[in-house]
Structure formats: C-alpha cells, structure tokens
Specification:
With 367 residues, this protein is of the alpha/beta class. It has helices at 10-17, 27-34, 65-69, 83-88, 101-106, 121-124, 127-131, 144-159, 162-170, 198-209, 237-242, 263-268, 286-294, 338-353; strands at 54-57, 76-79, 94-96, 112-114, 135-137, 190-194, 213-217, 230-232, 246-249, 274-277, 300-303, 323-325. 47% of the residues are buried.
Amino acid sequence: MNCRSLVAGACLTVLLMASVDAAENSASNVIQRYGLQEADAPVKDRKGWRKPKRILIGGQAARLGPALQTAAPDVEFIVAGTPEAKAKIASIDATIGVCDAEVLEAGKSIQWIQLVSAGVENCVSVPGVRERNILVTNMQRISGPVIAEHVIAMTLALTRGFDVYIPAQAQGRWLPRLPAGRAAVVDGKTMLVVGLGGIGTEVAKRAHALGMKVTATRHSGRSGPDFVSYVGLADELPKLAAEADFVVNTAPLTPETRGIFNAELFAKMQSTAYFINVARGASVVTSDLVAALNNNTIAGAALDVTDPEPLPSDHPLWKAPNLIITPHVSAASDLGAEAPLQVVSENVKRYSTGDKMLSVVDVTRGY
C-alpha cells in the first residue's frame, strides 16, 4: 500500500499499526521485492550533510516518532505544529511528511525531506527545495503492484461493459447485450503505457500476462523489460497512441506532462481505444476528454484521478458516456503498510549513519 491516494490520514493510520519487526517485510526484502533504487553515493558525501540531531515529523506522519526512534535512537523526533517545533525549528535537520515553504524558510538547517507519498510535484515546486539542493526521498515503486491491479480491473471492466451492467443491476434491468463494439477480449490487443517507471512496469507486466502487446514511453531512455515490445521517447507518444487499443497514463506530473492528454492526442487515438489514468488528473485537459467521450472520438475511459479533484457533483465528466471513475483509491489494498514504514525507517537509519539513501527524487526532473 502507498499513501499516494488515500485520504483523511487513512494510509498513515494503518501504517502506524504495522509491525516494524515483521520479518517478511524486512528492509532488504522490501528493497528486493519492489526494486527500490539505492543512491549512487552515500549521503555523507553531500554538501551540508551532518548527523541529524532533530527531525520534524508532520502531517499524516506526525505519530511516527515512537516507531522511528528504534531506527535512530540518538535523534529527537519533533511533531510539527507544536510549541516545541516552533521553538526548535531553526535546529531541525530533516523532515518526514512535511514539505512547505514556511517550514523551509524557518528551518534553515533542513537538508533532507522524506515524503510518505509517491507524488512529489507539490514538494519540488517549493522554491527552497531546489535553491538549497535539499535531498528529497519518497515512496516510489511501493504502490506499483496494487495500482497495476487497479489498471487491469479498469481495463476488463471497460471491455466487459461493467460500466453498463452495474447501473442496470441497481435499476433492476436485464440487459443481455452490450452496445455494438463494447464487448471485447484483451488477448492480442495493444496497451501503451505512458511513463514506464515503477507503476508503469507493473502495469506492463500484468498486461503482457493477459496476452497483450505492450508498448511504452519514458522520458529517460529506451530501456525496458523483455515483456515490453517497444519503448519510445516522450515525443513518440502521438504515434504510439494511434496504434494502441488502450492508453494508460502512469507518468509523474511535471511541466512536460501537464495537459499532454488533450484534444489533439485524443483525435489521434483509434475510435475503439480506451484511455486509463491512474497518475495525475492535471495530465489531462478535462474538457477535451469530456468532448472526446461525448463525440465518440474514443471508445471510453477509466479515471482514478481527475482535474479538479475531488470532482464537483455537477461536473460534466460525471455524465460523460462509457466512463468509469474511482475516487483516487488505486493504491488502497488489504496488504497492510509494513513496506512504506520500512522504507521510512531504513532511510532514517541510513541518513543518520551517512549511508546510501533509498528512493531519491530527481528534483530537477520532478520524479
């Protein structure tokens, strides 16, 4: 599970209930299972690093102190928003679950920010992060397997017409046939994964297992696993989208990906193709998607994220045809939260000892 998409503190509440000592979720097992990336150089080689004395924990992570104390016994963990935090903010060395301009302005000694989410766009947009070359780490890859299952569920729901049958069931209507062209098999179809990172790779793996041909785009290069038949660069998106039966967005939100799914791109897609978005709503020009659905430019869509979010009850997207919407819950599961807690604990330990950090964000790229 990952805190990327849960609301009202649900993810961290569950996280706090997880056992730090769970053998099956030891740090080494978590690193291997999710393919977490270790930094090339130890953090002690970074300019400004020093053994931390105080770490600020806030937001949904505010109650992590007792669990993290085991990882770094010599560190004082201070809860954000308390009188103590205000009095000691100038001597804070790092933060967990806190990344905002006000804290960074007051905390001139902060050199590391640990996020408890995969998305980093709000944090890296804070001017002080880049200006001071602050180290940022996150929950990348942890949510990949669960979100990938959500994508496959959406894919099958669209091709089997569940968006038609479930409302009919609620109305007590028996519909023996779907509209022409709706019932389809995925075996032999092509899925384009936009953003072949941790989540995208997990999506590709499952799509390939269902007999689909998988293509992908990524900003960083053309490398990819064997089950992806072709990896293109970002500028190849229009060409690859025109060849795909399913276009799945798993790309991080950056200046380059904001609004890339627009009227022009939807027009290049096949009229029988589906669009699925489990990344960020702002990657889509929402009004263009509504038009594409209403005009049958594409066959349908499934969204776990929207822009705006939450989606207002009177928004036209709700009434668009052939559309499935879930409320930003694709990372929710019954797996528990030992893995993200292990990542945070391991990074606290590594930062305290100056070792190589896990899941370092490229602040310049924005992911």
